[in-house]
Specification:
The chain is mostly helical. It has 4 helices and no strands. α1 packs antiparallel against α4, α2 packs antiparallel against α3 and α3 runs antiparallel to α4. The longest helix has 22 residues.
């Protein structure tokens, strides 16, 4: 569901070019690196990012306190902390383009996993 929602929000944005599945003819991959007070943030992207952040926050909590500790416990703790720091950093620096695309591509690969 998250993958479909992310595509719905990104398909007409200037961040997702046609060769990555976008439908906006003026889209360019270089626009994802613009930061600061961007005026082209698609409506609903912030909500999508916060839901993604919440999902990863729960996954971290679940891994630390609810699941049995396996042999890859330390590696997964590092992975979860890095993911939370990256999403928080994206929000803090307003790098919404590149952060949202990376979050959406990770959601996209989860469909096949």
């Amino acid at each position: 569901m998250s993958t479909v929602w992310g595509y719905y929000l990104l398909k007409d944005s200037v961040w997702l070019p046609w060769y990555l599945g976008g439908q906006n003819p003026k889209a360019d991959i270089l626009t994802v690196y613009e930061w600061g007070f961007t005026e082209h943030t698609p409506k609903g992207i912030h909500t999508y990012v916060f839901f993604t952040y919440g999902y990863h926050l729960f996954s971290t909590f679940e891994h630390l306190f609810l699941k049995e500790r396996g042999t890859d416990f330390r590696e997964m703790v590092i992975h979860h902390i890095a993911t939370l720091c990256l999403i928080f950093g994206m929000l803090l620096t307003n790098m919404m383009g590149v952060g949202t695309l990376i979050a959406w591509y990770h959601d996209l690969t989860d469909v096949f996993v």
